[in-house]
Each structure stands twice: as C-alpha cells, then as structure tokens.
C-alpha cells in the first residue's frame, strides 16, 4: 500500500522521489505572497486601459509644459505638422517622381474601378482627387497611395444592385453610392475614435487570403463582359450565374474585342512579370496601364474601331468634383441598404488600408497608429461623400508602386491628386475613344496579384484549421456572396477560439532528472513521474465554458494514475499538484471548479496543491474562501513545482506511520 | 553605453546579473527538444477525442472479452441493468417513502405547471406518469425526480401563445405543444448522441442565477391572475404589460379569492420556512401543497365557494395518457415556431436536469455522464410527445424533496409514476372543486426558491463582469423576453472570452533573490529586474485576434525599458526573453507575430529569446522556418528563464569587447 519501503514499487524507473528533488527543504521554500491590494476602480481602469489604449498614446504628453502639449496634440491629429517642417527639396523630388508614377496608374484604374462599381467612370477620377488631399493632411503613413480599390468597388456595386438598377435609375444609384460612402467613413472614423480598431483583427490573415483570391476571381469573371464584348450580362456576382450568362450569350461575343483584349492582357501581364522579376523595372508595370490606354485609344480613333463592335467609354464630363452633400439620402426605403453597404465596404476598405499601412511601416521601420489611421481614412471618406467620391482607401498595388518609385511622404499623394486635377480639367475628351476592353484587361491584371498561392500553401503546412477557414472564405465569396462568405469565415475563426477555451489543454508534468525542472512528459521523454504526485499543468483561463471539461479531465488523469497503481497493487497517490502559471484568470464558475475538485479528490484521500497561482486567481480564490481557508491555504500553496514536491515529500515522510493507516482506510477503487 | 563596468549602472538595485543566476553554466543547460513526431491524422484524432470524448467512455471496454463487452454496452445504455441486480428490499422501502412524498408534490405541481403553460391541467399529470418510467430505465442519476418544471412550462406557453391562442384554438395549441416537446426531445438526444453536451456549459452559473430569478418573478406575476381572481388577463409575459393588466382590471379583483389565496400562500411559505430551518422536517413543505389542495377543495365543496367568485379547475377527464403521435404536426405555418420552442425549452430543461443531476451526484459522490443523461432526457421527451406529455426534465425542487425523503434509486420515480397512475384512473373527480387560487399559491411558493440572493452577492464579490452578465439575464427576462434575455446574456459571456483572447496578459518577470525563480514583478515585490534582460511572460495562445495587440504591447514594454535606461543615460537592453509556457497554441498569424517582432527588435540591436515553447508552438515555428532557423535556433531557445539568463550572461561577457562597438553603432532612440 505504501510506496516507500515496498521493493516492488518501480514508478517512473525510480523507487522514491529522487534525492535532488528534496534538496529544497521546507525552511527554504518561498511563500506565494498575496498580490498588492488594488481597488475595483484601479483594476477596472487598468483593464480599460489595456483594452482601449494598449499603445498608451498619452505617454508622450506626460510631464510636458502646456504649450508643448498643445503642439503635440496638433501634431497628433494632423501628422503633416510633424513631418511638414522638416520637409526638404530632395524629398520633394522623390515625391514628384512617385506621385506622377502613381497618377499614371490611378487614372486608368479610377475609370475601371468606377465601372466595376457600376458608377460613371468620372466618379473614379473624382475619387482620386479629393481623398488623397485629405489623407495627406491626416494620415500617418508615408507610403499609402490613396484611391478607389477593386474589392470595395466590387462589393459596393454588387450590394447596391440588389435593390436598385444602375441602368434604369442611375441618379438614385449614385445617391446611394455616396450615402454608403458617407456611412463607411462614419463607421471607420467611429472605430478609430472609440478605439475599437481591434475589430478588424477578426479578419485574420487566413480569411483575407481566401477572400482576396475569391474576390479576384469574381472581379475577373465580371470582366468577361468587356473582354468578350457581351452586351447582355447578368447583374449577379456568383460564379454560376456569370458562367451561365457568358455561355448563353455566345452569339454576342465579338471577335474584334476578344483579339484586342487578349493583346493588351498579354502586354499587361508581361509588364507585370518583368517588374516582378526585376523590382528596379517597377515603372514597366506601373506605366503599362496608361500606355495601354493611350495606344488603344489611338488605335480605336485611327481605325474607327467603335464601329466594328468595340465598345468605348464615350463622352465624359469635364471639370472638378461637383458638391454632392445634397445627394446624401438619410431617409426612404433604401436607407438600410446604404447603411449595410457602408458598414461592409467600410470594414473591407479599412482592413486593406490598415494592412497596407502596417506592411510598409514595418518595412521602413516607422510606426503607424491603427486608431489614428482609422480616423484619417474615415474622415477622408466622409469628405469624399460630400464631393462626389465613392469609397476609397490605401490600395495594395498602388502603394507598392508608390514605394518602389521612391515615395518619401504623403506629398506623393498630393502630386497624384494634382495630376488627376489637370486631367479632370483638360484631358477628359481624350478618353472618349478608350475601349472598355482595355479597362477590363487592366482590372484583370491588377486583381490577379491578389491570388497568393504560396501564402495559401504556407497556411496549409502550418495550420489545417486556418486552411479550412481560408477555403471557406474563398468558396463562400465565389459561390454565395462577399458578405456571407466573410461572415461564415469569421464565424469559423471565432468558433476555433471558443473551442480552444472550451477544451483547454491539461498536461502531466514530470521531473527532468538532475534538475528541479518539471515539463510535459509527452514532450520531454526523459521527464519522469514522481511516485505519490500527479503534477498537472492547466493551460488556459478557467471559466464557465470549460469547468465541466476540466473537472472530468482532471478526474480522468487521477483515475488513470490509480489504474496504473492498481496494476502494481499499490495505492501511492497523495497529492495532485496543479501548476497554475498559465491560468490567467478564473470567473465565478472557475472558483466552483476548485471547490468541486477538492471535494472529489479528498474523498479519495488525495490533496490538491496549487503552484504559482497568478495575482487575479489568488485574489478570487481568497475572496471565495471568506476566511475559512478552504481553497487557499499556506500548506497547499507553493511557488514552484520543485518546492511543492520537496516540501510535501518531507512532510509525508514525517507522517509516514499515520499515513499508512490512513491509506488502508481508503477503499481501493 | 555598456552596462557592465560603468559605475553609474544601478538597475534593479544590482550592478550586474547576480552571481547565483550564473551558477548554471552553458554546459549544464538543458536543451529544448523537438516534440515526438506525430502525423496530422494522429493529431486530429487526439484533438477530436479531447473535443468529443473527454471522459473516454470506451475505456472500461478495453481488454474485456466479447461477452463482458456486450454486458457493459447494455449496462451503458440502460443503467437500470447496472443497479437493478443489486437492488434490495431495504432500498425499496426507502424508495417507496420518497416516491410517495414526491407524488404528493407532483400531483398539484403537475396541474399548476400545465396551467402555467396554458395547457389542460390533465396534461401535467400525464407528464408525471410516462416520462418518469422512461427515465428510470435510461437515467443514471439516483436522485433526479422527473416531471414538468416551471421555467420550461412558462417558456413553452409564452412562445406558443405568440402565434396561437390556447383559448380560441385549444386543439392546435395542444398539437403545437406536443410537437415542440418532440423537437425538444430530439434536440436533447442529438446533443447527447453527437456528444455536443458542452453547449449547455455556455449557460454559465451567473446567467442561470439571473435567469432563474427573473423567471421566478415573471412566473409569480402570472399568478396574480389566479391570486386576484382576474378574468381578463394579458397573454403577455413582461413586467410592464402584466402590471398594466393587473391595475386596469381592479374592478375584477375578487376579495374572496384574495383572502383565500393569502391564507394558503402564508401556509405554504410557513411550511417552506420550517423545512428550510429544520431539514429533518422536509415532509412539512413536501406535503403542504397536497394538504392545501385537499383542504381548499373540501372548503370550496363545503361552502360552495365557486358560486362566490372563486374559480375552480372544473371537470377533469379520467383515464391514462391517450396516444398523441397523430397530433404531431410536421408541416404547416407553425412548424418554425414549434421547432424554435422545442430548441429553447429543450436547452432550458436540459440545463436544469443536468445541473440537478450533477449537484446530487457530487453530493453523494457518484458520477453522472452528461452525454448519457442528455440521451435519457431527450428520449423521455420524445416518448412523452407520443403519449400526451409536454416537456419534462429533472426538477430542482422535486429532486431536493426526493433526496431529503431518502430516495436510493430511480425506483422512487417508478413509485411516483404509479401513484400518479392511480390518481389518473380513479381520483380525478376529486379535483373538480380545487380552486385555481391555491394552484397559484403553490407555484409562487415553488418559484420563490429560485431567487438566490446569496449566490448573486457571491458573484458580485468575486467577479463584476459575471455580475453584469447576471443582471443582463435578469432584466432581459423580466423586461424583454426569456429567449432574448438569455441570448444577450450568453452573447455577453462569449464576448468576455473573446476580449480575454484579444487582450492577453503580458507580464514582466523578475528574479526572486537567492533563487532561480522568475515571477511577475508587480505581484512579487522582492522580484528584481536583471540589467540587460527584459523578461516577459505571455499568458494566452497567440492568434489572429491578438497579434496586433501583442506586437504593440511588447514593443511598448521595450520602449519603457529603454526610457528607464535613457534616464540613467545607458543603453543596456540586449535580450527580450519571452517565457512561452502559457502559450498553448499559435496559428498562422501567431507565427507572423514572431517574425515581425524579431525584425522590429533586431533593428534596435536586441535579440528575442524563447523559453519553454510548448510542443505545438515549437512545431509550427519550425515548420514556418523551413530550415533557415530564423525563428527557432539552438542559441535562442531555453528550457527555463534561469538557464537563459545564465547562458546569455556568460555569452555577453565573452563578447563584451565586440558588443561595446556594436552598442555604440545603435542609435540611442
């Protein structure tokens, strides 16, 4: 019955607790002290601070004189005041070059993306004029190039088309687009002001990779309309309706359009390939869209191709952005749709903008404040909605070109904006003969870069669950819809977190011979179990969602230990040591787990011992005790597993004779 | 610039890393070994096992001969086969006493609860006849007393009344009640069969306490109809419509009813009080309802009170449960409502049944298998829906009486069932003159016990967030509706888990003098920071939801360290040691955190060191490395913080001269 002294005992290849484990005697053990007292208010305020101000934005203001504080505050809200005074001619030269480069990309893209959103092409150019100016004043990224983006354009168009037809009711459609843009901006700015920016973290990398690939395919499929020259095309987005529409309208296919489209597609893809192989030749792919537009326009004009079945943009209005605040509709039947569209395009464009900003900030080793960026992007869209712009953000492709072209500050956005202004004022008639098929080719080339196969493979290799989430986003977007595909994928990601909390790991620790280190016996094969001790590490906060599981699992560990004992006809278990370093918190249910566990094991003549409970956990157990020392007692509380083992072994030996009787009294289950 | 050798350095009251920290030399350090290789399939199967079979129900079958296996399987599905053979006359005597006691409670409660659900009173008695028999065969609890319960009755009635009026369309209402019961049973059994029982864990203790108190108030308010003798009463449940209805119908109040109600209410509450003070007198409160029914019925009969405005139950049908499978409606407009009602009453009654079963099992030290119980309760309700019963489960109050009366096994349920059978066959005419007001008083007395003020206070003391969740459930149930109140409360509980994951704790560790133990410097005031080392412990799995926060927070720790250094005009930070014992997992986003962190700190001339990464974390980092040792390297990987500090200090000293040059090259930010 008693492990010591019985020659047959051979637990963990040891006859007894190894002597080095006993080096620490009871006098030497270190007490687990109560954490310093803090009031509820102090605890709440520190929690709220970590929740909403993890970056501690007020730190820089501390201890500064009032005047300095005001300057810092102005610089905080208008980053241009921070970098403006140090701006130099050298920097300006770089910014002019990069600004002109992105303008050459922005003009054809602006027209193309506006068409993707079923908006008049000119709105795309308007959107490349005002928002970049706003961002230059408010934004804290040096590399972000602002303008309309493919995904937000796609979603805006497809969501609004659910209720309003852009062909039969173009004014209402435009009004709803501006209203959605307003709500998108309002939502983005609110996230920043309320410091709820962490919401966009729930669009994980896996989701974004799947979603972007799906969106790229959807967007490319939409371009089949212009690439094949079809006139009667489905307004739906899904793979199946689009393919049905394409093959039901074979008689509308125009070979002239197809040939022209293929030529420019090959040209653009080639330019992209060159720039990817030699990053120094970035201007090849950056300039290719504008060059394609110019060549194709000249070609159409020269051979009067529009009469041979090649559709062209047609007459465009001249002049700068007209005001549009009178077009915002805050009432009527479509308000709900406008709000919903604003929310979804808002969060999507915000995610893209923040991700781009962070990527380049990490690359160039400066910092981008997420919440501040949200305010900047949000305000930019609110102002945009007043000035005939639709949803804009920092674009992946355009920012990459901007960075490659040597942009040094937000001035490159101003240069781009000015170039677009000149275009709007004087060059619009030139686009009259631009064929739609070239715009389609430009979009396809742009979005193809969103399909990231190596990243998908990396996820497959690393985490199968993430891979499933990615596939869900991908297929959801292709077969159902952008919003629902994303929603299901986010739901799956959250489910994973909940499952992890519901089924926290508990592992058995063993002693690494010759040390007082205790590690997982499944991971470290040399780790040995000590007779009489079951050492378990709980690796998650304990709460209502997992107490039932933990209770069952810990009792199963104990039963397994006893079964092993039974085979050897001994009954050695005296102490269950719970290593609590990883239990960052318990709630009221968690407290009851300890109570129930204690009751259950005490019935078996076993004691529960806690090792290194953290401050909050200790506090709650103490409070739950109400002074009767049921859960937290000096003699069942240790700072390390080693000290617990040493101290308890010493005690057990002292009580050996008493224990023997006690052990026999316990039924041998 | 260099911490060692500069006399001004005085970090953490030490001039240097204390000598005891250096006792462990590099030769002695223990390697972090790679975890044993497991295939994806092995990992998946072990995960699924922990997810769905944490109790390992097949363990007992292992290594048994086939015949024994079959016997065990039969016993597994029909627990009666397990305890039946050992059943004795002594046990039977106890069970008869307790069975009769709960029957005396079950008859008036059955009639009352059926009225609460707007069902004919007889259905309440039917429901106390068949389901207890089914449970006796399938159930594994010895103390559960089965029958209709107040909360499920309330919810069933209020949800069905939303679409169908029990007064104007009683047959349809009854059909929907049976159909809902069928779906409730199906849902409960499915949860058990699919081993998804952990879903009910999401109704945490805090939610249940708030919800039950709210439900008790709602139920009591409903009784004002019979207690005041009002005939025109609102069909709604909320506090406001009920109180409006009560005070708009003052002219309907009947003083005779009120007087009678008050007398019996006082009598019942007194009986309850006596039993609570002296548990031995449990029979006082157990018998009181039946006594009240008998006395009041005699009284009404004697003085013909029904003619004085006291409403009575009226003629009841005689005979056993008629079959009702032909009344189940699996089509038509109300199918959705029936399914929804079934789901909600199913989960509520299941929660009550499981909680009661677990409570008494813990009290008497036997085990109740949650998933098996779900199958038993589910099957009981499916069978019930075929035999004119509505939703039943193990009832709190009735089981407590059962246990107090000395019940030893499920046979007490059989005895109760037989008593109810006799009542149904022969005694129904006796209830004709039972006044409704007494039934109301019985319900009020029963549900008042559901309001648990001490438990609410305990929650307030322990966890303020749980308290808010509790209040949400309470006020939600009172002012909105049972389902929505519960949904919001569950949502809040899940939000808490998500917030904990989004904002994991990171704490700075310091050395406890004279040991190689490292603990939180905020908790252990004697713990000292070591110059050159920033030791952080991350206390949560790292995933998409928290990488942004962790990145910012860790960089802020580093900046704070550097600022403290700046004040002393030194630049000592060399190593950021991340203690990873509590990081139970990383996902693909988590891996990228390490990469970004490494880039960010390497720019500052600081190295990241990992201590004790767990098996899964190591595996993923290794895979992400693809052999180029970027994240996981021998020299930045240690088993304990102490070994990391010792080994790195030794190395730094060796490289001191080289380091000095290096340190000067780093700009002093």
TrEMBL record, chains A, B:
Pfam families: STAS, Sulfate_transp
Coiled-coil residue windows: none
Subcellular location per the Swiss-Prot or TrEMBL entry: Membrane
PROSITE patterns: SLC26A, STAS
Gene3D superfamilies from the UniProt entry: STAS domain
Main location: membrane
The keyword rRNA-binding appears for this protein: no
MF term (GO), any: secondary active sulfate transmembrane transporter activity
Listed name of the protein: STAS domain-containing protein
Organism for this UniProt entry: Acacia crassicarpa (northern wattle)
